Design the sequence.
């Protein structure tokens, strides 16, 4: 049995297949704590990769599944150029806000907005988005106050930085304002334990705005660069320059329904509508929105072991086998796209957890290493760390298994 090593930061030269328990915190330092985005990885990982592969030189760094922007924040803090690709509309907005450098004008606009919130209840104008079964998710009073806040925020659209910042703050109170249970990442209304509502939403929003303004003022001073979002498709993005380093934490197989989890936020912010969300869900890596009879060819990069695993799962559940096939097919496309965008000698660091699908172990990290080898990568490092701050609090019905460790694999071109 592998001994667990306790560390404050991941060592630059990790032992092969070692397991680390990271004692230091800092997961909400700087702007990392803006919104509780699902399944984001800890900043220690991109910090490790940047310090290991970019020491003494300026790097171009990309995260093809950038989520809420953890890699981007760490990259610009350490003085590098950061680029992100993300399919979720709110994720893209959040990543931009977390890496934004602000000025005195920005702060003055936010302070003026806070004063307008004091008179929110007497305000008549409101904007209420088209949300299916909105009365199931929100009480009439919650709809009223959220609609008024939304109207005020929309009036800030002329200044995109201010508008995006306020929208992210607003997103923090949407789940709180809803009838949805707050312990489960996937929103649902519990009939057994009805939620006790608190109507003081404008005050909650003020507290979040003040907290986040303080955080972004301090972080902005430390940001040594800016970041860019360059696309929304991790399997097929294009950029004119080559990257020194790619760092990412892609979705796990069959592990998380991002679209459902962030549905209310995306709809209230009018980043998507019900129709576009359904289309986005079909495009997610690891999606279950697949036709049961869809046939997916196994790419040449698939190792023999993966084909055998898929056959075992197919005997028990054809759809699960299809999900696994499409997942690794998409990851193969992503790894190939990143390979083509890396400079010679560049690295791709991937954080991933293994799974258990219908009783069949799927060593995702090992399979990705083999796919990487077939695509022309070389293995540089492979180790894991204990997941301490678990966002998933609900069982996955035996579909994915409880993931205790995240594996870090580093590939070089």
Sequence:
């Amino acid at each position: 049995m592998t001994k667990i090593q306790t560390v404050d930061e991941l060592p630059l030269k990790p032992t092969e297949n070692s397991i680390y328990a990271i004692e230091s915190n800092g997961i909400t330092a700087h702007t990392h704590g803006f919104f509780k985005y699902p399944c984001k990885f800890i900043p220690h990982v991109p910090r490790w990769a940047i310090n290991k592969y970019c020491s003494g030189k300026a790097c171009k760094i990309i995260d093809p599944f950038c989520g809420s922007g953890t890699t981007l924040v760490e990259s610009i803090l350490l003085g590098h150029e950061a680029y992100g690709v993300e399919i979720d509309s709110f994720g893209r907005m959040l990543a931009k806000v977390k890496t934004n450098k602000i000025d005195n004008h920005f702060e003055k606009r936010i302070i003026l907005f806070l004063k307008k919130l004091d008179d929110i209840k007497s305000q008549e104008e409101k904007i209420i988005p088209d949300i299916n079964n909105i009365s199931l998710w929100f009480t009439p009073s919650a709809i009223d106050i959220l609609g008024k806040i939304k109207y005020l925020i929309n009036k800030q659209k002329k200044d995109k930085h201010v508008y995006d910042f306020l929208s992210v703050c607003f997103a923090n109170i949407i789940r709180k304002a809803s009838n949805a249970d707050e312990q489960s990442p996937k929103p649902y209304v519990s009939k057994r334990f009805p939620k006790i509502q608190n109507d003081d939403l404008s005050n909650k929003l003020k507290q979040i705005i003040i907290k986040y303004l303080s955080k972004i003022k301090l972080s902005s001073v430390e940001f040594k660069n800016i970041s860019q979002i360059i696309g929304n498709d991790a399997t097929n993005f294009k950029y004119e320059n080559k990257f020194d380093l790619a760092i990412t934490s892609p979705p796990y197989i069959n592990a998380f329904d991002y679209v459902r989890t962030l549905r209310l936020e995306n709809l209230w912010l009018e980043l998507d509508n019900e129709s576009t969300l359904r289309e986005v869900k079909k495009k997610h890596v690891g999606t279950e929105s697949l036709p049961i009879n869809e046939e997916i060819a196994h790419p040449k990069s698939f190792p023999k072991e993966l084909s055998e695993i898929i056959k075992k799962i197919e005997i028990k559940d054809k759809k699960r086998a299809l999900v696994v096939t499409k997942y690794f097919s998409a990851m193969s496309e992503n790894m190939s796209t990143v390979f083509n965008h890396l400079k010679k000698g560049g690295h791709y660091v991937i954080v991933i957890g293994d799974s258990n699908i219908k009783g069949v172990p799927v060593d995702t990290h090992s399979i990705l290493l083999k796919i990487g080898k077939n695509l022309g990568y070389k293995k540089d490092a492979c180790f894991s760390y204990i997941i301490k701050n678990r966002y998933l609090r609900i069982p996955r019905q035996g579909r994915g298994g409880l993931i205790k460790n995240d594996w870090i694999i580093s590939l070089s071109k």
